[in-house]
Design a protein that fits this description.
With about 130 residues, this protein is α+β, with helices and mostly antiparallel strands. The chain is built from 3 helices and 6 strands.
Length: about 130
């Protein structure tokens, strides 16, 4: 339940467009691994990454479906799928589905995201 609570906070912050709240869910040395980009390393860089994402559009709908969440001592993981609707500042809104793997660490009694990897089920646009 504690691992899913972190996911719930992530969903809430994403829908609010709150990059700082998202970054605060991560460890100081966390790594975000977004699709088609180099890894984003460190809490400050992750906050900047989300600030840039939210500046380019709003997430109108976002939900997670947990396939498996488990804590093993001070490490945990959450694996699942996502659904979202992205409304860019320019262009048409887009529905997207995909999958994710998040590895969490318990630090000072609090679960934080150490690694987050996700990608879309949609094919890349043809050029």
């Amino acid at each position: 339940a504690a691992l899913r609570a972190v996911a719930d906070q992530y969903v809430k912050a994403t829908l609010a467009g709150d990059a700082k709240a998202i970054a605060n869910l991560y460890t100081e040395d966390a790594v975000e691994m977004p699709p088609n980009l180099a890894p984003v390393k460190g809490r400050a860089a992750i906050q900047q990454y989300y600030e840039k994402q939210f500046a380019s559009g709003k997430i109108a709908r976002f939900s997670l479906t947990h396939l498996e969440s488990r804590a093993l001592g001070a490490t945990g993981y959450d694996v699942g799928t996502y659904q979202q609707n992205v409304a860019p500042t320019a262009g048409a809104a887009m529905d997207d589905t995909g999958k994710y793997v998040v590895i969490l660490k318990r630090i000072d009694g609090r679960w934080r995201v150490a690694y987050a990897l996700y990608n879309s089920d949609q094919p890349l646009p043809q050029r």
